[in-house]
Amino acid sequence: MKVIFSKLAVATVVGAGLALAAGGVANAAEMPKRGGILTYLNPAEIPSYDAHRETTFGVVHPLGPMYSLLIRVNPDNPQSATDFTCDLCEGKVPSPTDGGKTFTFKIRKGIKFQSGAPLTAHDIVATYKKIMWPPDGIPSSRKAFYRMVDTLTAPDDFTVVFKLKWPSGAFIPALAAPFNWIYSKADLDKHGLNWHTKNVNGTGPFLFVQDQQGSFTEGKRNPNYHHMGLDGKPQPYLDGIKAIVATKLAVRVQAIRGDRAAIEFRGFPPAHRDELVKALGKDITVQESDWNCALFFTPNHESKPFDDARVRRALTLTLDRWSGSQYLSKIAIVKTVGGVVFPNHPFAATKAELTKLAGYGEDAKANLAEAKRLLKEAGISTLKVNFVNRGVDQPYKVVGTWGIDQWKKAGIDATQQVLPTPAFYDTLRKTKKFDIAIDFNCQSVINPIADITKFLGTSGANNGNYKDQPLEDIYAKIEKSGDETEQRKLIRDYEKRALSDEAHMLLTLWWYKINPHRSYVKGWKIAPSHYLNQQLDNIWLDK
Amino acid sequence: MVTLSEAQVEAKFEQLAAKPTLSKRLWEFCRKQPLGAAGAAVVLVMIFMAVFADYITHFDPVKNDLANMLTAPDETYILGTDQFGRDAFTRIVYGARTALLVGFVSAFAGATIGLVLGVASAYFGGRFDLLFQRVMDVVMAFPLIILALAVVATLGTGVQNVIVAITIPFIARSARVVRSNALAIREIPYIDAARALGYSHTRIILRHMAPNVMAPYLIILTASLGQAILLEAALSYLGLGVQEPIPSWGLMLQGGAEEFAETAPWIAIWPGVAISLAVFGFNLFGDALRDILDPKLRAR
Fold first, then answer.
1. How much helix, strand and coil, in percent to the nearest 5, is found in chain A?
2. What is the mean pLDDT of residues B108-134?
3. CATH of A37-262+520-541, one of 3.40.50.720, 3.30.565.10, 3.40.50.620, 3.40.190.10
4. Sorting pLDDT into bands at 50, 70 and 90, what band is B33?
5. CB of B244 within 8 Å of any CB in chain A?
6. Domain B63-281: which topology?
7. In chain A, N or C: fewer CB atoms in 10 Å?
8. Omega into B245 within 30° of 0, i.e. cis?
């Protein structure tokens, strides 16, 4: 018995030792290494340095690492739609008081801007006032997200208080938008609200070094950064970053293949993922995710006969989304069939709910027959469509070509007019000379209540040129409802009206994000948006 | 000594003066210009494909067949399929239509407008000629593709705009070449005679001068054809020309061809071969035509 016990004791000690050793090895493997420059690719040029007015990743990817946010999506869990952490605030993201209407943030002390000025609550108040209530002539792309905010104050140097008009689950996600870079109040007061379009002064993990327009942007490690690393020392782990502008997809793929760059944060089509994996094997790591971007065909309601809901329904009925998902996901950065809400969110429609919408039924032949019937009922025998597309292959031109083929099955003859991005936006917003245009809704933080405003005729981002008061009324109820079950039900009504009954916009497929990167890039986790998790403070190079 | 009757002499002269038959002339052309004949053969094949595309292939050039996307060349799809499952051979055959339509229309329009303007410039001379030639200098200062790009950027994409974009730079080139020939013709006394008879400027330019510069006109026309096809392909490749789903060789080289260059190289190879052959064919044919029509080269 004694022998048995002694053997058991030895075995236990050895086992525990091995387990500890293995754990130690595992920990050592995960312990970030310091140093090195991360070279990555920016597929777009920087339009201006002011993220408050911009909507493109082209500004977030190279300059986001130079700024901090009040709160942010947890960089270690960016897939979650509800996991937010403090960036400039202290402790946990505060819970609301006053019946869900007051949020009080305590601000970290000892943080400095690149200029050397200390950060206080007044900087945060000045920044959010610029974002939420900009004066005339100062663009702010997401000011509509903050309609629920009543007042914003800084009772002392390290406290910020937001008071809402009504309790809203959309407030905290809106606050965490990656475009909400905190600016110095002194800069805003001294230089004006346009100063940040051409100047950088942040408190992010990297200090701005230089930007050669159309070529590259450089940053170096901020020694005073406020987040601690896993090794107990301040982040970031990298010595610096360099974002290289490369607008051609083929160039970006070859840059990663040739190790001229380690990563591109937007996303590659499946073919390039396969190509890189085949060529680089274990030297390439692939991260994939559903993407908080939806691609639409938007009929111009001011162009006849697209003012007729039957015609729009016919157009959406001809789109065989389920087959499209199966095949297009092999050649384009789209995949998921979905409704108005990001597919993985609790507010999103289930498949059973989706198949009740026009054009979402799985019987494509029945859909097509109904489309032809509706066109006949609308008195249309031949329909010629001027389809305006954006001059970008992925996913616009690929899905556009697919759409033309789908419509042809119902006898709809679409002529594609591909325009460079500035001319494309001009056509959508100014000249409005189109019958149907490609359109998209790319958002950052998954915030369905804010994201679905795209479908409102009154939304600044809507290109359909329509007014739909019943839809506005449903949205108003969604916005002010505090009950998630009720909100979900209202969203279904909203979805049915926007996508099916009125078919204001024809939602094709949701995007799918594929990020192949060099395996030595560690710490970065893919988010459901190419705008998110781009401060790069937790990235390190395993070289 | 053999004596010939008057009738026999007349017959002999008629025999000597008789024009060679078409087949004989073709044979002479092939014998003297074998490369030109090869070029002409390529051009003829292209025209044949464009005209009889509906009979050459039974596939629809624009219809997607996603279940057969990226199929490698086999007995069904002899040149494979693209990312939308469309038969590459079919799109090349129909693409010849687009290439020839754009090529012929823009080359013909450019060369013809250039012919009229060039002759007019030479005929009027003086300030008009000086001013007009400076305008031509400005147009010719831009490389062909840059000018075409600028025009497309202004007008937008699509077949019609591509034709306009290619035509404009050709006008200047044609006008310059034709003008230099027309300057010599202007000095010939019959032009003075026509003026003395009170003919209008338009009549003198179109009926008395233009027909005498046909040789350089035809040469520039054939030379422009190859260039026009290449330009159309270049503009479509850059996304500024013909748009999906219209079959166009340049368009076939864009998008999927880049994206699937490694996994489905046939998407890029065949349209590339088609463009090369067509341009090569038109250039060889144009060179041979120049050799035949240019009296100086013909004497060699």
1. 35, 20, 40
2. 94
3. 3.40.190.10
4. confident
5. yes
6. MetI-like fold (1.10.3720)
7. N
8. yes
| A contacts of B260 (beta carbons < 8 Å) | 271
Q: Do B64 and A420 touch (CB under 8 A)?
A: no
- Test A402 with B156 for CB contact under 8 angstroms: no
Residue whose token pair is 């140097």: A157
- What's the CATH superfamily of A290-513? Dipeptide-binding Protein; Domain 3 (3.10.105.10)
Q: What is the mean pLDDT of residues A273-294?
A: 95
What's the pLDDT at A482? 78
Numbered residues of chain A with Cβ closer than 8 Å to any chain B Cβ: 249-250, 269, 271-272, 274-275, 278, 323, 326-328, 330-331, 389, 391, 393, 397-398, 400-402, 404-405, 408, 415-420, 423
B259–A271 C-beta distance less than 8 A? yes
Q: How far is CA A9 from CA A19, A22, A110, A416, A537, in A?
A: 15, 20, 52, 77, 45
The answer to whether residues A509 and A293 touch, using CB atoms and an 8 Å cutoff, is no
Q: Which of A274, A397, A417 sits opposite B156 (nearest CB)?
A: A417
Domains of chain B, residue spans: 63-281
Q: Which residues of B touch A398 (CB under 8 A)?
A: 83, 255
Token pair 């052959």 is at which residue?
B277
**Cβ–Cβ contact B68 with A under 8 A:** no
Nearest alpha-carbon partner for A401 in B224, B244, B175, B72: B244
Q: Is the pLDDT of residue B16 over 90?
A: no
Residues of chain B in contact with residue A250, where contact means CB-CB under 8 angstroms, are: 258-259, 261
Q: Which two tokens stand for residue A543?
A: 């070289």
Give the residue-averaged pLDDT of A166-195: 95
Mutation choice for A interface testing from B71, B149, B243 by most A CBs within 10 A: B243
What's the mean per-residue pLDDT of chain A? 92
Q: What is the pLDDT of residues B156-214, one digit of tens each?
A: 788 888 999 999 999 999 999 999 999 999 999 999 999 999 999 999 998 999 888 99
* Chain A closest-CA separation from residue B236 CA (Å): 11
- Domain map (residue ranges) of chain A: 37-262+520-541, 290-513
How close, in Å, is residue A334 to chain B by CA atoms? 15
What is the Cα–Cα distance from A93 to A85, expressed in whole angstroms?
6
A35-44, A119-128, A141-150, B54-63: least confidently modelled range: A141-150
In B, which residues are within 8 Å of A321 by CB distance?
none
Write down how long chain A is: 543
CA distance B29 to chain A (A): 44
**A–B CB contacts, 8 A cutoff, strictly below:** 67
pLDDT attached to residue B8: 74
Is B256 at the interface with chain A, CB within 8 A?
yes
Position A416 scores a pLDDT of 93
Mutate which: A401, A402, A408, A431, vs B, most B CBs within 10 A: A401
Place A394 in a pLDDT band, splitting at 50, 70 and 90: confident
Asked if B255 and A398 touch (Cβ cutoff 8 Å), the reply is yes
CB contact under 8 A, A416 and B64: no
Please provide residue A509's backbone torsions phi and psi, each rounded to the nearest 5 degrees. Answer: -140, 155
Kindly report which listed range (A227-231, A269-273, B17-21) carries the lowest average pLDDT score. B17-21
User: Which among A526, A486, A464, A502 has a CA at the least distance from the CA of A358?
Assistant: A502
**pLDDT tens column, A415-449:** 999 887 778 888 988 899 999 999 999 999 999 99
Chain B residues within 8 A of A269 when measuring between CB atoms: 259
Residue A23 has pLDDT above 60, yes or no: no
Q: Which of B259, B260, B262, B267 to mutate to test the interface with A (most CBs of A within 10 A)?
A: B259
How far apart, in whole angstroms, are the C-alpha atoms of residue A279 and residue A257?
Answer: 8
